[in-house]
Amino acid sequence: MSALLKAGLIKRRSGGYSLSSLGKIVYDVQVIIAKALEDYWKLAAIDSVQHLPEIGLNKIIDVLVESPEIKESLLRGHRVRTDNNNSNSRGGGGGMAKKYAFS
Q1: What per-residue confidence (pLDDT) applies to 50?
Q2: Would you say residue 41 has pLDDT above 70?
Q3: Is residue 78 predicted with pLDDT exceeding 80?
Q4: Distance between CA 98 and CA 83 in Å, rounded?
Q5: Residue 10 falls in which region: left (phi positive, over 0), alpha (psi -120 to 50) or beta
Q6: How far is CA 66 from CA 10, 23, 43, 60, 62, in A?
Q7: How far apart are the C-alpha atoms of 76 and 44, rounded to whole Å?
Q8: Per-residue pLDDT for 90 more than 50?
């Protein structure tokens, strides 16, 4: 319990504990992840047809995915691009940092 308090996920109230705002968000995200894992093969099938026209892909997502949160996330169409940055603030090239940008 003390680790949850320190992390800000729960708060003490009237001798009991309740979720903080951050705790509620973390809980909701865990529920969404659990739903996504239950639909792993459906999501893999969607990945295998990413080359289809958008309207066909949207229809497949609509048919296969029941969770509104997961469906919304998939239909948003985020793309991830990486930006390799080989320099650091000291001018040396010792470390390689990767930046991720979502669009």
Answers
A1: 85
A2: yes
A3: no
A4: 6
A5: beta
A6: 30, 25, 11, 11, 8
A7: 17
A8: no
Domain locations along the chain: 1-38, 39-103
How many CB atoms are located within 10 Å of the residue 61 CB?
Answer: 19
User: In the Cβ-directed half-sphere of 80, how many Cα atoms lie within 13 Å?
Assistant: 5
Strand, coil or helix: 103: coil
- Show the CA angle centred on residue 1, arms to residues 19 and 23, nearest 5°: 25
CA–CA gap between residue 76 and residue 19 (Å, rounded): 29
Residue among 98, 58, 57 at smallest CA distance from 81: 98
Please report which helix (H) or strand (E) contains residue 52, including its range: none
Mean pLDDT of 19-45: 96
Q: For residues 9-27, give the mean pLDDT.
A: 93
Task: Report how far residue 62's alpha carbon sits from residue 64's, in angstroms, rounded to the nearest whole number.
Answer: 6
Between 71 and 101, name the one with better pLDDT.
71
